[in-house]
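Fold it.
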Amino acid sequence: MKLTKTCAKFLRKHGGTILAVAASVGVVATAIETGRATTKAQHILEIDKELTKFNEDEFGVVEGPPTKRQIVLMCWKAYVPAAILGGGTIACILGSNALNKKQLASMTAAYMALGKTYQEYRRQVAERWGTDAEKDVWKDAQSVTKEPTSDMKTEKLLCYEPISKRYFHATEAELTDAFYTINRSFAVDGEVSLNDFYSCLGLEYLPNGDTTGWSADYLANEWEYYWIDFQYYKQTTDDGLEVYYVDSFQPPIENYIDYDPYAEYCDKKEKQL
């Protein structure tokens, strides 16, 4: 079951690329098979020509050259493999195009939802605290958003990932890049696993990391978010050691691929009774 889900996820993620490669191979294979079929057809026509000459010499039966219809009836079987390859190539091209359009639509929808959520957030801030306060917050946020400094790119921070309870070192730039990469994959595929996140951080996979993660249905239903809000923040231990916790605002769930909003709703109702 785990292997099946892993394969299905891989195909959903890389299906467009696989079909594009298959189509490229199919174009070459179709051209080669067409050349072989033409050679076979010429051989068939040469045999027919020899038989016509033999009948004329031995039996005096004079036959005219074969018509186009007769040529087709004699040679069509030679082109069957090339036709099958050509049809398969066309199917791969159309399939790749359809998958790419689906991924693009998913990404566009995710970014549109993100923009809508952001505008709603600004509206509620202005409603609660006033338009002037919202503008001040916006200006402050713009002043904080800046290009990574050299320290952010080179200074290694001691980080801690609480789910796997592992320590690792990373720069602020590497953490930010990991958060962006995993959310981009989420926008394209509609789901990401915990192991996908660990891969972005340079950590080894966990045994249950492929079945634990985030899906679009889970975030939309439970959090009304359309992105994974990763964060890192500094904590100081009792002995003065500074550690940066790396986690997400929305925790990952088990069996995220099979998340069923209705089942979750029923479970909550049963617990309330």
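The two ends are 34 Å apart (CA to CA).
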